[in-house]
Design a protein that fits this description.
It is a single chain. By secondary structure, the protein is mostly helical. The protein has a domain of 35 residues. It is built from two helices and no strands. Helix 1 packs antiparallel against helix 2. The protein is elongated and about 55 Å long.
Length: 68
């Protein structure tokens, strides 16, 4: 697995959180189109998973730094 720097992870987290927020705001507006709503819900779930994995990686790096 590739190691990413803390600043890179924090920037990715910021960018993904921003995109997630925008997607969540648009979801009620696309509800009239079932296929678009499904696609958007899947994207939202993927963004949430990505954010959780970044959080986990940041926590692991913090734990490793604390042990040093």
């Amino acid at each position: 697995m590739t190691d990413f720097s803390r600043p890179a992870l924090l920037e990715a987290k910021r960018a993904l959180a921003s995109t997630l927020s925008k997607c969540e705001k648009v979801l009620p507006k696309v509800a009239a189109s079932p296929s678009q709503a499904t696609l958007l819900r899947r994207r939202i779930e993927a963004l949430r998973i990505s954010l959780a994995l970044i959080e986990r990686e940041l926590a692991r790096a913090e734990d490793a730094a604390d042990r040093e």
